[in-house]
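User: Structure with magnesium ion, tokens only please.
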Amino acid sequence: MTAASALIVAAGRGHRFGGELPKQYAPLAGRPVLRHTIENFLGHPEIQNVIVVIHPDDRALYDRTSAGLDLPEPTLGGATRQDSVRRGLETLVAQNPSKVLIHDAARPFVPHDVISTVIQALDRDVGAIAALPVVDSLKRSRDSIISEAVEREGLWRAQTPQGFRFREILAAHREAAERVDGSTGLTDDAAVAQAAGHSVTLIEGATEIFKVTTAEDLERAERWLSSAALETRTGSGFDVHRFGPGDFVTLCGIEIPHSAGLQGHSDADVGLHALTDAILGALSAGDIGQHFPPSDPKWKGADSALFLRHAMEMVTARGGRFVHCDITLICEAPKVGPHRTQMAARVAEILGCSLDRVNVKATTTERLGFTGRGEGIAAQATASIQLPSGPSAQEGG
Ligand code: MG
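Assistant:
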């Protein structure tokens, strides 16, 4: 899996609702539009980090909007959108990601499969953007009278995300910023890439990637949210591994020193195995043994994060998203309590979700049974996901 960074541009001053708030901070179903947008990208397993570019005047608004989310300091935007994007790209230089997806804050509903397709396209292409073919007849007018029909063949409406290889788009933006004419004709990042001589591929976007600009759009977004036919699925998982020789155990991705190890074909991480099975269960996709047969030498000693990521990618491929999980580790020793926070953080990192969507807890069995006798560790997990129900959800507008 190749990961990408996401750059969300939220530095605009549009007050087109006529209200006090810039449009990206307008409440949509009780939360700012920008919060929906950020969570959508944070929840995608192939997005490794999210950078938000904000207007310097919006710092307090942004802090409220992003409360509780695992995000780095926001980048302060410039005088134009292009300038804001360039500043955002500059903050990514230290991390030097191979791919970056640049996205408008005011487009909260990007289907996860569109994000995946844009990221995949960047294995071949320098640039790939979401866009929709024009289906209406097009007319050019003079004083509200049709002067000519415009051939719509080959015409697309550009959306975002617009994905690029990082080095190339950074260089293209730096070049554009230095141009004397101010590069006024460059209306989006695809145009910036093209001006630098790169070709940009069109990826089929989706009608729900509309921009929330006017009060009408906001109503349409509310309708879309309430009509989006997502169903919630819950799955459960259970796993046991026995103790054997060793001096540490791996639980929920964290190595904990212990007087024994856990035996298994992979790293024997019972917590991640139970969670992987819970997600596969919610997908009605069988169990971990079917996807990663223990008979296959390829999985010997494997990091179980691989299994969990695979299950998450299946959720994303179905147009779904992860909602929440709860993992219970069952053993007398080692003590799980001191490591719980770190375990939850590691699980959230693997799933690409916020910390408040993961719970890890532990119990003993009062010295009863095989866990009570210290013969092994058991784990159970539940996971909730959302999947589109039936044919793809219709938008409300
Ligand atoms: Mg197992």
